[in-house]
Amino acid sequence: MSALCGACASTLLTTTTVMHRATVVSWSERQRWNRRRGGAISANGGVAVTAADDQRLKKGIAEFYDESSGIWENIWGEHMHHGFYDPGAVVQVSDHRSAQIRMIEQALLFASVPEDPVKKPRSIVDVGCGIGGSSRYLSTKYGAECYGITLSPVQADRGQALAAAQGLANKVSFQVADALNQPFPDGKFDLVWSMESGEHMPDKLKFVSELARVAAPGATIIIVTWCHRDLSPSEESLRPEEKRILDKICDAFYLPAWCSTADYIKLLESLSLEDIKAEDWSENVAPFWPAVINVLYGVYVSTLLTTTVTHRATLVTWSERQRWHRRRGGAISAKVGAAVTAADDQRLKKGIAEFYDESSGIWENIWGEHMHHGFYDPGAIVQISDHRSAQIRMIEQALLFASVPEDPVKKPKSIVDVGCGIGGSSRYLSTKYGAECYGITLSPVQAERGQALSAAQGLANKVSIQVADALNQPFPDGKFDLVWSMESGEHMPDKLKFVSELARVAAPGATIIIVTWCHRDLSPSEESLRPEEKRILDKICDAFYLPAWCSTEDYIKLLESLSLEDIKAADWSENVAPFWPAVIKSALTWNGLTSLLQSGWKTIKGALAMPLMIEGLKKDVIKVSIITCRKPG
């Protein structure tokens, strides 16, 4: 479009097909509603947006990208958008970053942006710039000044740093600003660029109006965005199954209701823009997501293993702390890994509760009601369908190892499940022994779900799940014949207090079973784990809200200090190692991926850390141990 033309040219490129929420009206539907009632075209993209809703959405978008931009940069590179491929092409994993450059070039080609030295754009705005990949690319290509805006302070800072590193600090600038209220004068830019940011805008008319306002006469506007498919004249709305898909994506990525390509065109026409054209690039971008998924785990694990973390960079294991006290003649510390203040303790518990409140739904979808490892023959070829039955084997193997009696007279009649999740073990043990079982968890969501599942299975009078602290259990001394902790000990900041509470609530003669994640035992000559081992554990701790780890040997010494009897332990690492690959395969199914997207960032972060468990088990730094004992009777 020549700079001499009086109106702006608008180019619209769409990338996807379906829509937002089963309970939300799409922009197309809302238009029809207004037309039937004689109303004006709605400026809002699918929902009536209050000022409070608008602020919540913007805050959510900013926080989402503040948290996630580092990971997306590691996976996608500096261009945080789709790549462009030939439809049906066989895509190599290594190709997705170059495909993102093709996406930019194809958009410029489609819009006929001039490269002639006289007519090329000299001033560009990148609306929803991410960390500024497009801004820097366009500035370099055209020798233009480029201004990027984003809601995320982290993205703006990173964009500036990358611009400086690439020698573009005097040509490219980034700032935190609202795309619906841009901080630029009218008619400033020769090229107005929006690469996959329109889907975040709650008010599509305001969005395109601002793009047009800041465009200079004759400027080109390019919008690449996610849309739902156009509705046929006979359709009032998308189909329910289409809405359900987009509902989950909207929840994950902080998107309001979407509109269609036809809706965008009508909005642009209402602003008297010229040369409006659009094209569906869905087939061209479709190969991008499989390529990203293929690299997701490899790239992320590589990053986790090589980058510096801030959360526990000075992690000290329980074994090291014991040695420190012995060298100085001090008592054995009850704290594991670091001195835990009351404030630290509360923050940890709050983090654990929120993590499981957010993630329990997806773990149930992928793992089933038993939220722990499965038990396999070492080296067995594992089918994805086998991991739930393997979790039952885990329970049975633990009972067998501990010699829990099944004799009607001696079998346990009262059981506590410490860190019960949604109560899978509680219900299984109650059914097996006909016992009363009490489950405790820090997560209100887990407790509520556990109660509901117990009622659905006819166990409401035998199984009770409640919110309680494992370090301060709400039960009297000596209440339980079987004290069960299946993979909850790793969350405990004070291991001595943890095992002391298990012993306190155990009846005389009761069996205590602890299955937990440990670090490897240290040799007599070792003062600590190796730095690379600590790095793996640090990052798992970050993802799963774990304090510092201890070893199996440490647990045994703690139990001995309480005068418990028949203490024995076994390393089950080889038996559980096949579980994580099976879970990752489950997570990469459609059900797993959509559940991940719906669940929220804490869960995604935890899921991305799953390969570290594989890494830690392979390197023998992580041990999954069973430790059992008996309270003197």
Automatic annotation (TrEMBL):
<comment type="subunit">
    <text>Homodimer.</text>
</comment>
<keyword id="KW-0808">Transferase</keyword>
<protein>
    <submittedName>
        <fullName>Methyltransferase type 11</fullName>
    </submittedName>
</protein>
<feature type="domain" description="Methyltransferase type 11">
    <location>
        <begin position="416"/>
        <end position="514"/>
    </location>
</feature>
<comment type="similarity">
    <text>Belongs to the class I-like SAM-binding methyltransferase superfamily. gTMT family.</text>
</comment>
<comment type="pathway">
    <text>Alkaloid biosynthesis.</text>
</comment>
<dbReference type="InterPro" id="IPR025774">
    <property type="entry name" value="PiNMT-like"/>
</dbReference>
<dbReference type="GO" id="GO:0008757">
    <property type="term" value="F:S-adenosylmethionine-dependent methyltransferase activity"/>
</dbReference>
<feature type="region of interest" description="SAM motif III">
    <location>
        <begin position="214"/>
        <end position="223"/>
    </location>
</feature>
<dbReference type="GO" id="GO:0032259">
    <property type="term" value="P:methylation"/>
</dbReference>
<feature type="domain" description="Methyltransferase type 11">
    <location>
        <begin position="125"/>
        <end position="223"/>
    </location>
</feature>
<keyword id="KW-0017">Alkaloid metabolism</keyword>
<feature type="region of interest" description="SAM motif II">
    <location>
        <begin position="478"/>
        <end position="486"/>
    </location>
</feature>
<dbReference type="InterPro" id="IPR029063">
    <property type="entry name" value="SAM-dependent_MTases_sf"/>
</dbReference>
<feature type="region of interest" description="SAM motif III">
    <location>
        <begin position="505"/>
        <end position="514"/>
    </location>
</feature>
<keyword id="KW-0949">S-adenosyl-L-methionine</keyword>
<feature type="region of interest" description="SAM motif I">
    <location>
        <begin position="124"/>
        <end position="133"/>
    </location>
</feature>
<keyword id="KW-0489">Methyltransferase</keyword>
<feature type="region of interest" description="SAM motif II">
    <location>
        <begin position="187"/>
        <end position="195"/>
    </location>
</feature>
<feature type="region of interest" description="SAM motif I">
    <location>
        <begin position="415"/>
        <end position="424"/>
    </location>
</feature>
<dbReference type="Pfam" id="PF08241">
    <property type="entry name" value="Methyltransf_11"/>
</dbReference>
<dbReference type="InterPro" id="IPR013216">
    <property type="entry name" value="Methyltransf_11"/>
</dbReference>
<dbReference type="GO" id="GO:0009820">
    <property type="term" value="P:alkaloid metabolic process"/>
</dbReference>
